[in-house]
Amino acid sequence: MGRSVTVHYAAAGGGAGGITPILMIALLFGVMYFMMIRPQQKRRRESEAMQSGLGPGDEVVTIGGLYGTVTGIEDDTVLIEVAPGVQTRYARAAIARVTTRAELPSETVTEDADTAKD
User: Fold this and answer.
1) CA spacing 20 to 30 A to 67: which of 12, 88, 98, 105?
2) Are 81 and 69 in contact (CB under 8 A)?
3) % of the chain at pLDDT higher than 70
4) Could you give the CA distance from residue 77 to residue 69 in angstroms, rounded to a whole number?
5) How distant is the alpha carbon of residue 31 from its chain centre?
6) How far apart are alpha carbons 105 and 118 in whole angstroms?
7) How far is CA 78 from CA 43, 46, 54, 68, 71, in A?
8) pLDDT tens digits, one per residue of 45-62
9) Where are the alpha helices (H) located in the chain, listed in sequence order?
């Protein structure tokens, strides 16, 4: 008779213990999302915005460490001048970062107007 009581007790305890592993797995996925996936998506969006904002005159660094100046842009490629008269073609995704942005013509016009007033 003591044996059937033990079996019933184990069966009753097994139902409540089944929820705990599921909660732990859900918690693990939640932590992975906020610690790994979400920051990576943010970096990818920032990188795409930087690459889409490239323009002639921008000084850039490629993922291979090559420094150069953007001279032309096509759909998915960028022409970079790495030395005077030496241009190379790179994929837009190969641009790691922009070191110096080219000045826009409208900024130079306003600067010239400000200096003329002085």
Assistant:
1) 105
2) yes
3) 73
4) 14
5) 19
6) 21
7) 21, 18, 9, 11, 8
8) 998 999 888 889 999 999
9) 2-17, 19-32, 38-52, 105-117
